[in-house]
Amino acid sequence: MKFKSNTKTIIFIGTGGVGKTTIAASVAMGKALEGYKVLVITIDPSLRLAQAMNFKPNGQIHKIPLPQASSGSLQASTINHEKVFYDFLSLAASKTTAQQDIKNIKSNKLFQELSTRLSHSQDFTTLFYLYQHVKSDQFDYVILDTPPAQHTWAFLKAPEKISALFTNDLTSWFRAAEGSPKSIFKKIVNQSTAKVLDILKMLTGSDFLDELRGFFNAVQSWQKPLNDLIVNCQKLLVSNQTEFVLITSFDHNKFHLTQNLSRKIYNEGYNLTHLIVNMTPDWLDEPSEYYDETVEKFRSLYLKTLKTISKDLTMIHKNLKVYKSINLSQNISHDNLDKIYSQIVTMD
Amino acid sequence: MATQKIHFFTGKGGVGKTVLTASYALAASATNSTTLLTELSEESALSTLFPAHKKPQNLSLDKWNAYGCLEEYASLLIHSASLSKLFLNNPLSRSLINVAPGLQELAVLGKATSGPRNIGKPMNYDEIFIDSYSSGHFLSLMTAPQSFAEIFSFGPMATQSQSIDLWIKNAEFTSVHIVTQADELSIQEALELWKNLKDLKIKADFILNRFVDTSAINFKKLPEKTRHFFENIQVQQSFAQAELKKIKTPTTLIPQAFETDLFKIVLATATHIKDINEV
Predict the structure, then answer these.
(1) The domain made up of A9-81+122-163+240-346 is a member of CATH 3.40.50.300
(2) Does residue B79 belong to the interface with chain A, where contact is any CB pair within 8 Å?
(3) To which CATH superfamily is domain B5-214+250-278 assigned?
(4) CA angle B185, A77, A43 (to 5 degrees)
(5) CA B247 from centre of chain
(6) What is the mean pLDDT of chain B?
(7) Given this model, what pLDDT does residue A96 score?
């Protein structure tokens, strides 16, 4: 597989269960053997890859030995989402926020729930971790295997979602609702905000309202740096040094989802350059003298699928490089990643 | 009136949840007077699945959008349309709704359990089939009522969360079906979800999808690559069945359908489900 010469970030996306992690890792291995310094960030939830590559899934970067001598290098890391989330807050907070404020917010119930959510959803923390390492300039390629979100969309939209929390000046809104009104306009605004607060209080109880107030007070001082950071993460996604590789599997249902995804990605201006159809069967044209009903049913189903997939492919992707890789049922291990890489071939 | 039942379908992405949910709903509509088939995903898959003239009259299709459920729910709790509009359009409430963890999930479950809890307009269905989120998100969905009951100390939100929590944990009313394929990763994810749900005191059963009967295949006569492919299926399937057997939870086998047309798969699968139910 070839990428543009100035590309620094390669993001693998696709729906669940299409072999994203394996393909991302094998491309990383392939590029390391071609002489590049590569970091692969894997989010494989089952940690199979970490096991296969024999490194600890502890959120730190590990050097992976290469099967043959090469001037390149391969390093791999899983993500400790909780730690990354706190790193993110501390980085934004370091200059502007007193330690006490950080303590205050960490003990806020709403914040705790929010941070667990954000770190569970993995979307934002993954992106931030990627940003940190691309920015460090220590690697030729930083390769990311995206979270197993049902829709990769959630991952791409993560910065927008979190910035909504920090851009609206909600703290001042709270003050407006409680402070003394100075103008008639403010008074009108305040009457409606006071009503909203009443509703909130009625719905959720006053304790929750206190938590909410505490939360917005605590985040006030670092709204701007946080937001800048989020904007930088977003910029990385649309940068011309970032390429997206879309993976789909040999399955008509999944292909349908992939089509929708690829269209959306184009529309949003991400740099989608490669499509890999994974798990294509390698036995369909194998000659056989023996007739077996089950085998033939599969063969005809798969041939039909292959036909529809390639028809759909040529319809939507004119500039996209399309590859296929065969069904890799054998165990992934760090020894056969380079083989997997060599089996990713152009589809014609 | 007999008690309504709701069915959630979840599992790893790509294991065939949507087609199975539709098949189960279609099978149920043969004996129910009214059945609802609905989806939570942002992309509408169900509407393209059923050719309009082939859908039975007593099977209704819907799509429950999380934000929409929340709006609906807020207006029920606030009682006044103008106040709820004010509330929902307010910047504080809006951003709270967007980021507040699980609020939209809570509303989805609020809607799903609104029948027995007598909240809002009654949904007159015998059974509701919900094509739900995949494993991780589904777990957050089912955790939402409990965590909200903890965050809100009192007020309607607290009582609502508690009552929703009770109904989703009531196995007479709520069934959770974990759809899986026989491959190792899907099975691992299914088992992990089952365990996490069990910790939440939610019972779930398994549906092993795309099961292939390999008993009639004469492996020795197959050429090498073909043999590998089918042997691999056989190995995966016996591993899957052994793993599922260990935890003594009901598992339904759904055979592989040899069709590319999704609606034809739904039809074939629904027939199979009806056959199982009769036995």
Answers:
(1) yes
(2) no
(3) P-loop containing nucleotide triphosphate hydrolases (3.40.50.300)
(4) 35
(5) 21
(6) 89
(7) 59
